[in-house]
Design goal:
Elements lengths: L1 E10 L2 E11 L3 E6 L6 H8 L7 E6 L2 E2 L2 H4 L2 E4 L11 H11 L4 H14 L15 H13 L5 E5 L7 H16 L3 E6 L2 H7 L2 E6 L2 E7 H6 L5 E7 L11 E6 L3 E6 L5 H9 L3 E8 L3 H9 L3 H9 L4 H4 L1
Parallel strand pairs: 3-8, 3-9, 6-7, 7-8
Antiparallel strand pairs: 1-2, 1-4, 4-5, 9-10, 11-13, 11-14, 12-13
């Protein structure tokens, strides 16, 4: 188990991480979620001893961070960390050696992973010759090649096309079945919702939701409507009974009052829109996040992009 206890970290005037605590159990996918700039990466860097917390501590199976534990961690950073001029196999063997895996054993394991990711044709290519998606696959291979007990993946789907996203989801599922301790950090709530057993959502350095995903979603009811449509859906927020809405160009998520029947809202929407699909279900993580903080992840990220101190809070 990984246990994070009351972490704090500030940079000049920015409180990047403010009293963050959570536990990650083996054999479960734990989502560390929130907008860009929320404090997720800073939390991970403190867990990995890259930067020191102002207060708080991290425990790995009840032990503090050490060199021994470091070699049992697989970390996929959000940023590219590969030597671009080196050839693919040499790069993998080099990073495996840093984790105590012999060159021959690293090559044997690498061939398995390269075949699984359909990269065997690129063994003799330089890293810089690979696409962004293939470089992401290589970084993932490096993060798991030494068979770590603790696996921390920061935006693992970055640069991957839909086919390879499905492949990576399947691999993460396999690691879960093996009893690995998995942290999946992302700002993409939709991805997390499909994969995670437990979640910790952070906004502005603070925890706004934490716990078992299914149980947390139950707290926010099931009176939500998801609509896919063609037309201008801006009027949807003004339909009687709609308490809160997240409206996009061809998609909307509506939270409705418990006294209003979903079919009446759908009927009203169909008067002005070509409804392609609708579903009445429990709220998504995006909707819950909006309810908790009063804005969508996308809205917060747009504001964050305008903040000159954003790098200090990332």
């Amino acid at each position: 188990m990984i246990e994070v206890q009351n972490l704090y970290k500030s940079f000049t005037t920015v409180n990047a991480v403010n009293d963050v605590s959570f536990k990650v159990e083996p054999g479960r996918v734990f989502g560390l979620l929130g907008p860009n700039g929320a404090g997720k990466t800073t939390t991970i860097r403190m867990m990995l001893n890259i930067i020191q917390p102002d207060a708080g501590k991290m425990l790995f199976d009840d032990r503090p961070f050490s060199i021994d534990i470091q070699n049992k961690i697989g970390y996929l950073p959000e940023e590219r960390g590969l030597y671009r001029k080196n050839k693919l196999m040499h790069t993998i063997q080099y990073f495996a050696g840093l984790k105590g895996v012999s060159s021959n054993e690293a090559k044997k394991r690498a061939l398995y992973w390269l075949e699984r990711f359909e990269l065997t044709d690129y063994i003799n290519n330089r890293v810089e010759e690979l696409s962004k998606g293939n470089q992401q696959k290589v970084q993932f291979i490096i993060s798991v090649l030494h068979s770590p007990r603790y696996i921390i993946l920061d935006e693992p789907f970055s640069g991957l096309d839909p086919v390879n996203q499905i492949l990576l989801k399947d691999i993460i599922g396999d690691l879960r079945k093996e009893g690995k301790i998995l942290i999946f950090s992302t700002h993409q709530m939709e991805q997390a919702e499909k994969m995670c057993d437990d979640v910790c959502i952070i906004n502005k350095g603070r925890v706004v939701m934490y716990g078992n995903l299914a149980e947390e979603k139950k707290k926010y009811g099931v009176n939500n409507i998801l609509l896919e449509f063609e037309g201008d859906g801006s009027f949807l927020e003004n339909i009687r009974g709609v308490k809160q809405s997240a409206i996009y160009s061809n998609y909307a998520e509506l939270e409705i009052d418990s006294t209003v029947k979903p079919r009446s809202v759908i009927h009203e929407a169909s008067k002005h829109l070509d409804i392609r699909k609708f579903e009445v279900k429990e709220p998504t993580l995006n909707a819950i996040f909006m309810k908790l903080v009063g804005a969508t992840v996308e809205e917060i990220e747009r504001k964050h992009e305008e903040d000159p101190l954003k790098e200090e809070a990332a």
